Amino acid sequence: MSLFDFFFPDQAQAAHLRRLADSTSLANTQARINRSRTGHTQSSSNKRIDELENEVGQLTIIVEALLESISDQGILTRDDIARKVGEIDARDGVIDGRITKQKPSPEDSSSKPKFNFPE
After folding, report:
1. pLDDT digits over 97-113, tens only?
2. Which of 58, 60, 81, 105 is the most buried (most CB within 10 A)?
3. 3 state SS for 7-30
C-alpha cells in the first residue's frame, strides 16, 4: 500500500477502478477484433470453397462432354477410359482415385542444400 493509498483511500480506489475499467475495455476491444478477424477468415474460406466447388463443377461437365464425344465417335469405349484411369491412378503408387503428390523422401531432402549461396 502506498502513502497515497493510505492518506487518500477514496481517490486511490477511484484510480484503481479507472485502471480496471480501462483494462476491461482493452480486453473487450481485443476480443472484438479477434472475433472480427475470425469471422473474416471464415468468410474468405467459405468464399474460396464456393469458388473451388464451381471450378470442380465446370471441370466435371467438360470431362463428361469429352468422354461422351470420344465414346460417341467410337474412338474409345468407357471401359477403355476406365482402364486408362486405373493405370494412371496406380502410377503414383497409391490407388485412391486421384493423382497423389509424392512427398520427398528424407534421403532426397538431406542431400539437397537448404540454401543456395553463391560459391
Report:
1. 888 887 766 666 555 55
2. 81
3. HCHHHHHHHHHHHHHHHHHHHHHH
DSSP letters spanning 43-100: HHHHHHHHHHHHHHHHHHHHHHHHHHHHHHTTS--HHHHHHHHHHHHHTTT--SSSPP
The set of residues, in sequence order, having a beta carbon less than 8 Å from that of 91 and lying 6+ positions away, is: 99
Domain boundaries, the chain: 3-98
Question: Which one-letter amino acid corresponds to residue 5?
Answer: D
Q: Read off the C-alpha cell for 42.
A: 471464415
Cell of 89: 491412378
- Residue where the block lists cell 502410377: 91
User: How does pLDDT run across 58-79, given as a tens digit for each residue?
Assistant: 999 999 999 999 999 999 998 9
Say which residues have a Cβ less than 8 Å from residue 101's Cβ, sequence separation at least 6.
none
Q: What is the pTM of this model?
A: 0.47
